[in-house]
Design a protein that fits this description.
Layout (H helix, E strand, L loop, with lengths): L1 E5 L8 H14 L4 E5 L5 H4 L11 H5 L15 E2 L5 E4 L18 H6 L8 E5 L6 H8 L3 E7 L8 H12 L6 E10 L4 H14 L3 E7 L2 H5 L7 H4 L4 H17 L18
Parallel strand pairs: 1-5, 1-6, 2-4, 2-5, 6-7, 7-8
Antiparallel strand pairs: 3-4
Helix pairs in contact: 1-10
């Protein structure tokens, strides 16, 4: 099981859209995928579920109380309308996780462990913060993907994020920066081109070649509780996230579509 956190402490850079879209792409290719909403704003949840469809959430699993029985992560898993894709939804109450004792940062990793044989991929959406609510998914992850908006101030704070990344690696040495993806690119403006050029100059091969352009269908799809692959499968946004997923799978050494072979390095199925 490969676990990927989608992280950036800046808000409005396309984290939730990236998490929802990549998870949907994995599922469409036959990979058993679990999408975990680790953001109290619950934006990635809204890509799949209406508020009245949410019962048990990640808050119920990770925020422990003497009055409530400790729940496994399975208790919060909801099946989506897409084959091969499940989701652990979030609620605003999850913001209280920041007040949990420091040892709580290991809870998600331990709750995910029993699911290792169930899912090929776990995608975790994270909040725009550098607190323990971000450290927790990074400790549970094998990889990190960083969306960076094509805007003048978008790269501010990346050094802080990378410092957090290195701190987590001291405890979780398996954590790898899979790559950075330029999002919200507007081809009509010079500032978007300059922002992408600056990102490439600074981070080189760590930046994915796929650029996610601004697309109205990407912005509309959460309102209909569908990822762009269902809401507008022929849109530019859907195509670009398909290309990004190709790159992600290539970097992971995995097939573009799951067949008889599982992830690279695993045994073939009978």
């Amino acid at each position: 099981m490969i676990t990927i956190s989608i992280a950036n402490q800046k808000g409005g850079v396309g984290k939730s859209t990236t998490a929802a879209s990549v998870a949907a792409e994995f599922a469409m290719r036959g990979y058993e995928t679990l999408l975990v909403d680790g953001d109290p704003q619950a934006n990635v949840t809204s890509h799949f579920l209406a508020p009245d469809q949410i019962g048990t959430s990640i808050a119920d699993v990770l925020i422990e109380s003497e009055q409530r029985e400790k729940l496994p992560l399975e208790a919060a898993i909801v099946t989506t309308e897409m084959d091969h894709l499940d989701i652990v939804p979030s609620k605003l109450r999850f913001a209280r996780f920041e007040k949990e004792p420091a040892i709580a940062i290991n809870r998600l990793r331990s709750k995910l462990a029993p699911l290792a044989s169930t899912y090929d991929f776990v995608i975790i959406d994270t909040p725009p913060t550098l607190g323990q609510i971000l450290t927790t998914p990074l400790l549970a992850s094998s990889h990190m993907v960083v969306p960076v908006a094509a805007s003048p101030l978008a790269q501010d704070g990346l050094d802080d994020l990378m410092s957090t990344f290195e701190e987590v690696r001291s405890t979780n040495p398996e954590l790898i920066l899979l790559g950075m993806v330029c999002t919200m690119f507007d081809g009509r403006t010079a500032v978007s081109a300059e922002s992408y050029r600056s990102l490439k100059e600074r981070y080189g091969a760590r930046v994915f070649e796929t650029i996610i352009h601004r697309n109205v269908k990407l912005e509309e799809s959460p309102a209909f509780h569908q990822p762009v692959q269902l809401y507008a499968p022929n849109s530019r946004g859907a195509l670009l996230y398909s290309e990004l997923t190709d790159e992600i799978l290539k970097r992971l050494g995995a097939r573009k579509n799951k067949g008889k072979l599982k992830l690279a390095g695993e045994e073939t199925r009978a």
